[in-house]
Design goal:
The complex is a heterodimer. Chain A is mainly beta. In chain A, the strands form two sheets. In chain A, strands 1, 3, 4, 7, 8 and 9 form a six-stranded mixed β-sheet that branches. A three-stranded antiparallel β-sheet of chain A has the order 2-6-5, with no helix packed on it. Classes of the chains: A mainly beta, B mainly beta. The interface between A and B is medium-sized, with 27 and 26 residues.
């Protein structure tokens, strides 16, 4: 299974909104509503911030939102804050209980 | 509070073997699938393997199929991955994660919690 495609980097100023795309195919993103997003601060473990395309776990800021259209999922961060500077990884369920991740996107707060 | 802690990472020569362990606490261990996800230096995450809550179902990425074996001991709240025929491409931080088995009946399909990871370096 090929990795999902994410932009290598996205940047924005505090208070702005940014969107990270995650493009897959018919066997993953387009075929299932099981896309999740993980935030990873430098040197730390990933943290689940979005699951099932649009849902947020308890305790995750509502500044994070997810969506999907056809074979592309998106993560939007509204009201960008300095603590949002991190790597963001998308993941999708694929065939026969396998998973595919994106290459990760580095978010920089200017 | 869910707590996952990996151990066993080491420097190993190409062709060698290694076993990683992940000790879990803070949840009903046998109710959840457990997975291994790795991250090569400077790279993105790569799903490696998942074992169902009972241990009866195991799933592998094509890149490790036939070389890695995932297992669990529910009485010890521990999940393992036995890695053999290691190559330099297996060099990565290996994370243990809760979840990874998609239950289409309940709709549970994600990696909820992650451990801090353990580093495996394959080099001569």
């Amino acid at each position: 299974h090929s990795a999902l495609t994410q932009p290598a980097s996205v940047s924005g100023s505090p208070g702005q909104s940014i969107t990270i795309s995650c493009t897959g195919g018919v066997n993953d993103v387009a075929g299932y509503t099981y896309v999740s997003w993980y935030q990873q601060h430098s040197g730390n473990a990933p943290k689940l911030i979005i699951f099932d395309v649009t849902k947020r776990p308890a305790g995750v800021s509502d500044r994070f939102s997810g969506s999907k259209s056809d074979n592309t999922a998106s993560l939007t961060i509204s009201g960008l804050q300095p603590e949002d500077e991190a790597d963001y990884h998308c993941a999708s369920y694929s065939l026969m209980n396998t998973w595919v991740f994106g290459g990760g996107t580095r978010v920089t707060v200017l | 509070e869910v707590h996952l802690l990996e151990s066993g990472g080491d420097l190993v020569q190409p062709g060698g073997s290694l076993r990683l362990s992940c000790a879990a606490s803070g949840f009903s261990f046998s109710d959840f699938a457990m997975s291994w996800v790795r991250q090569a230096p400077g790279k993105g995450l790569e799903w490696v393997s998942t074992v169902s809550g009972s241990g009866g179902g195991t799933y592998y990425a094509a890149s490790v199929q036939g070389r890695f074996t995932i297992s669990r001991l529910n009485s010890q709240n521990t999940v393992y991955v036995q890695m053999s025929s290691l190559t330099v491409e297996d060099t990565a931080v290996y994370y243990c994660a809760q979840g990874g088995y998609c239950d289409f009946w309940t709709g549970y399909c994600r990696f909820d919690f992650w451990g801090p990871g353990t580093l495996v370096t394959v080099s001569s």
